[in-house]
UniProtKB/TrEMBL annotation:
GO MF term set: ATP binding; calcium ion binding; protein serine/threonine kinase activity
Gene Ontology BP annotations: cell surface receptor signaling pathway
Region: Disordered, residue numbers: 598-641
Ranges where the Protein kinase domain occurs: 328-592
Key word Ion transport present: no
UniProt organism field: Lolium multiflorum
Protein's name in the database: Protein kinase domain-containing protein
Positions with biased composition (Polar residues): 613-641
Keyword vocabulary terms for this entry: ATP-binding, Disulfide bond, Kinase, Membrane, Nucleotide-binding, Serine/threonine-protein kinase, Transferase, Transmembrane, Transmembrane helix
Keyword check for ATP-binding: yes
InterPro entries: EGF, EGF-like_Ca-bd_dom, EGF_Ca-bd_CS, Kinase-like_dom_sf, Prot_kinase_dom, Protein_kinase_ATP_BS, Ser-Thr/Tyr_kinase_cat_dom, Ser/Thr_kinase_AS
Length: 641
């Protein structure tokens, strides 16, 4: 790092400060400033600066080099431009031993005016390694006089004491003389290219330190194929290597440069040509099949709504090959959905998922399918089954969901017959109500599920309910209720919707009432309409439907709670839509039931029943209430209450 030479002026053009930039770094004359790696820069306006070196001759020095920089005003110089306007640069000759600059702009004959030149108050000159400096117009006013620049030096053996004449030896003069430094076997002398003197190198085939005895070692060229090519069999030798073609091969030249080709007979050549021809045909066929398969996947992607779904940021779109990796070779069969089988899968991060067939998409159903997917991506809630992604490069689109390890509520109630206590059933009802309430409470766009039933309420490993299967769901504005093409399963469907085609959030409330009824009776809804009518009639006539409760939970201490849940179910199942509670009220009533059960206080229900039924604020914080811990252990309740 060497300093910059500079000369600064005041407004009248007089010199106020200067420096030739010299540093005594080379008093022994060993180093030369590299002419191949450095260049000279001159910065300023109306200035000429040069550098000189070499022994005297006709002039005091052997050579002079520099350049002239000129500016008309403060706008003349441009960033990155160094061709004479505010900046110039030139290559330097070899042999330069110092960085002393001649500031010619202040000498006689070169006294160019610097009066009122505030846009360039100083001139600068410096040697710098090529590529390490790019001119900026601000440097004319802002470059500090303490600036240093990096440069590179050349060196050589330049001991003048070796030669009695006082001059430095070249290789021709120094070999075999006392003090000769190329002492290693397999070393050689090389004349310096920048000034007098010489260097030592290891000869070809060797590497190491030529200035030490035995410093040059043999190179194993066969281990360095990039540096020492061989197209055949390589054999290392002392200081070199041999390269020959293997048996049955030959080269048209040196195998180090030319390839080794098989020695083929005419028959072999014909066989090879035939094999190559067949191979070409096979490759062409395979390439065509691959292209057709790619084209088919692209067409399926487009047909299945890929263009519309590609912009859904919450959705991961899996390729066909990615889906195959997720499902694996022997994916576990989980069950049969409405449109196809459901299989267990594993994501690359080992997360378990469920892969489910969707509807077969065509021109008529594409909008229905993409709407279903968009609905699900908009719903992020702990009680709604999360849609992770989909695959559209298949005949029937596949949907990838989070995995619910305990299957559906329908399977738990009627197939596997888990011994569910009342507390757990109440938790399942509350979680399901929270999910539906979230769907109904969207301020901008209300979502009607349209297919609420136990088979569409899935349970995870902790028996947390997850509302699923949105194939019949619709995004409707608060004013829009008609959805004639949505038809749910008959046992759970709202009779008002069946008769009018009018789908509202309270259609889901009716279906949820049927689910509540199934939770406390554990009877399947094959004969749902008759059973619903019987249950509601018993409540109307007798104020109770105790005979229909599941005997596993119909104990004396549970009867009051069951009656309250039954009363809520009958309210949900009213034929008068306006008489039904909304999901917010349903959730509030269930939460109060759980809270009263936890504290053993049935009076809490009585205190709030009138407020809730009238759909007026009861002062209950639903978020606080639903987050209250359930009494007992955190694992699912299987024992009798």
């Amino acid at each position: 790092m060497l300093p910059v030479a500079f000369q600064c002026f005041n407004s009248t053009g007089d010199t106020t400060d200067f420096s030739y930039g010299t540093v005594d770094f080379n008093s022994a004359g060993v180093y030369r400033i590299s002419n191949t790696h450095n260049e000279l820069f001159v910065l300023g306006c109306n200035t000429q600066i040069y550098i000189n070196s070499g022994p005297p001759g006709r002039y005091p020095y052997s050579y002079y080099t520099g350049c002239v920089a000129y500016c008309n005003d403060s706008r003349s110089a441009k960033d990155g431009a160094c061709a004479g306007i505010g900046c110039c640069h030139v290559d330097i000759p070899p042999g330069l031993t110092s960085n002393w600059m001649s500031l010619a702009s202040g000498t006689v004959g070169y006294a160019w005016s610097h009066v009122d030149q505030e846009f360039s108050p100083c001139d600068y000159a410096f040697l710098v390694e090529k590529g390490n400096y790019v001119f900026k117009a601000d440097d004319l006013t802002k470059m500090p006089t303490t600036q240093t620049m990096p440069l590179r030096l050349d060196w050589a053996i330049r001991d003048s004491n070796i030669n009695s004449t006082g001059s430095m030896y070249s290789c021709a003069q120094v070999t075999n003389r006392t003090g000769y430094t190329c002492v290693s076997d397999h070393s050689e002398c090389v004349d310096s290219t920048n000034g007098p003197g010489y260097l030592c190198n290891c000869t070809s085939g060797y590497e190491g330190n030529p200035y030490l005895p035995q410093g040059c070692k043999n190179i194993n060229e066969c281990a360095r194929r990039e540096e020492y090519p061989c197209n055949g069999e390589c054999h290392d030798t002392e200081g070199s290597y041999n390269c020959v073609c293997g048996r049955g091969y030959q080269s048209d030249g040196d195998p180090k440069k030319s390839p080794c080709n098989p020695k083929f007979s005419r028959t072999a050549k014909l066989a090879l040509g035939l094999a190559l021809g067949v191979s070409f045909i096979i490759v062409a066929i395979l390439s065509t099949l691959v292209m057709l398969e790619r084209r088919k996947r692209m067409e399926l992607f487009r047909k299945n709504g890929g263009k519309s779904l590609r912009g859904v940021t919450e959705l991961t779109i899996f390729t066909k090959s990615e889906l195959q990796k997720i499902m694996g070779k022997d994916s576990e069969f989980l069950g049969k959905g409405r449109f196809g089988n459901v299989f267990k899968g594993t994501l690359p991060n080992n997360t378990m998922v469920a892969v489910k067939a969707s509807i077969k998409v065509n021109k008529e159903t594409k909008e229905e399918f993409t709407e279903e997917v968009k609905i699900q991506t908009k719903m992020i809630h702990k009680n709604i089954l999360k849609l992770i992604g989909c695959c559209l490069e298949v005949d029937v689109p596949k949907l990838v969901y989070e995995f619910a390890s305990n299957g559906s509520l329908e399977e738990t109630l009627h197939r596997r017959r888990h011994p569910l206590g009342l507390n757990l059933r109440l938790d399942i009802a509350i979680g399901s109500a929270e999910g539906l309430n979230y769907m109904h409470s969207n301020a901008a766009l209300v979502i009607r599920h349209g297919d609420v039933k136990p088979g569409n309420i899935l349970l995870d490993e902790n028996f947390t309910p997850k509302i699923s299967d949105f194939g019949l769901s619709k995004l409707l504005t608060p004013e829009d209720h008609n959805s004639n093409n949505v038809v749910g399963p008959l046992p759970y469907i709202d009779p008002v919707y069946m008769n009018t085609g009018r789908l509202t959030p309270k259609s889901d409330v009716y279906s949820f009432g049927a689910v509540l009824l199934e939770l406390i009776t554990r009877e399947e809804n094959d004969n749902a309409q008759e059973r619903i009518k019987k249950f509601c009639r018993l409540y109307t006539e007798q104020g109770s439907a105790r005979a229909m409760y599941d005997k596993d939970i119909a104990t004396a201490e549970n009867i009051f709670m069951l009656e309250e849940i039954g009363k809520l179910a009958t309210d949900c199942l009213k034929e008068d839509v306006d008489g039904r509670p909304d999901m917010t009220e349903v959730l509030e009533r269930l939460v109060i039931l759980r809270r009263s059960r936890q504290h053993g206080n049935t009076q809490d229900i009585s205190d709030h029943r009138d407020d809730i039924t009238a759909n007026t604020p009861s002062g209950i914080d639903i978020n606080e209430a639903t987050s209250a811990p359930v009494s007992g252990p955190s694992t699912p309740e299987f024992s009798q209450p």
